[in-house]
């Protein structure tokens, strides 16, 4: 032991580095722990310290028709948004990276612009546009709005993969007899897939978590989970909110894990 | 395996409307020939190869393979093999799937694919690597997979774009022998792009030396080395002395010069430096007037007969000099 200690003297820099990392992790994870504590605490108002452990708030959440309808709507919308944004986002990224388009920088900025505009403005603008054009507030309008905000995430991750893409690999496939369509499905798509799905994870979470845009575009009885939670909080501040938050976190986490398993998001790093 | 002759007929290519990358190049490559395109980077050798492959369309001129005009044929219908410097293997597929790709595109029946993939891998000594991914192989192994993938479809033409450029020297030399031997055994027409003159001399049946988009000289390695036609070719291939006599240029290889006593020699001077190269030494001799001369002395003993500072005379035969075009 003493030999090892001699060889590796106390390193102040390294200790500071580890301490900083621990602090950052605590900063990120502590709120989740607090939410979990509140979700399990049976008192009818949010209080500290907790007096016990109970699942009554989870029960309330899962047995409430309002919460459940909202949860299913949110899941359904987020899934459609995921599919739409990976298709649109990947196509945009390919066009931007490969299309030899004039004014490529301007186009990229344009496609990324939903990230720059505050979501509350996007929501308000779409609300007015929908009403003025007589579209109203159908679910597909909500899906379109979420997709608008989610697509830049897919574009960005896909562009990152395309940036390091060795196009000789596609050329090799073409020489071997693959038509442009086959090159795309046999080589291009499998190789950009990790980037596309990494963006898809963001897209799902952006939609599932979306509050400001949804606020303007949902109709009574057709509200997404974040909107329902917000309305609920205006009158009650009990553990049901915390339980709903825990469910949201777990759902988002499971989407990430499932995609990781199926597609291997890690491959994204390797490319 | 059938092989096909290739003809480039006054082919030109400009990029971005500015640089003439390939300037009216005409080449006749015989069926079954090992033909190298040699030159510095930017000389147009890779662009020429890419026009044969179909990745670039010539602005003017025609490309013929096996007697057919293929200028307007898309890449995937040209039935060629190609090997890239970066290997360009499919990273998401196994070695066997990589090699099978071209056969799958040709809708070859599955049992035949398996048989031919196994044979192709055996040919490049990679039996047993079928289920590996390219990322798990060394550079030399990856290039052999690339070779097997290109050759398994039995193309009449194999195009190689600096295929050995990424390998270290020892492996490179070994692959040179293997590639040459394989090409002769299969009889495939091979077009080989390289900037390495030693590699081109060692492997090729014929070499086209290119410079600034033009072909400077086409010939066998011996012709290119012993009888360079232009100053560029003479300079680019190996070491050479260029003697300017009046307005005419004469080239003389360092190994054609003999070291003699200074008195009565064609040229007398002092040894400036002596670079020991193993079996030979390259001496730089500064004459009383005129530019320095390079002299290669092959020695049986451990070192050259002259040291820096020695006075020395140079002698050569007129038949060993080559007059250059300019």
UniProtKB/TrEMBL annotation, chain A:
Signal peptide: none annotated. Its main location: membrane. It is found in: Cell inner membrane; Cell membrane. PROSITE patterns: ABC_TM1 (PS50928). InterPro entries: MetI-like, MetI-like_sf. Keywords: Cell inner membrane, Cell membrane, Membrane, Transmembrane, Transmembrane helix, Transport. It is a multi-pass membrane protein. This is ABC transporter permease. It comes from Reyranella aquatilis.
UniProtKB/TrEMBL annotation, chain B:
This is ABC transporter ATP-binding protein. Keywords: ATP-binding, Nucleotide-binding, Transport. Belongs to the ABC transporter superfamily. It comes from Reyranella aquatilis. Residues 6-237 form the ABC transporter domain. Pfam families: ABC_tran, TOBE_2. One of its GO terms (molecular function) is ATP binding. InterPro entries: AAA+_ATPase, ABC_SmlMolc_Importer, ABC_transporter-like_ATP-bd, ABC_transporter-like_CS, Mo/tungstate-bd_C_term_dom, P-loop_NTPase, Transp-assoc_OB_typ2.
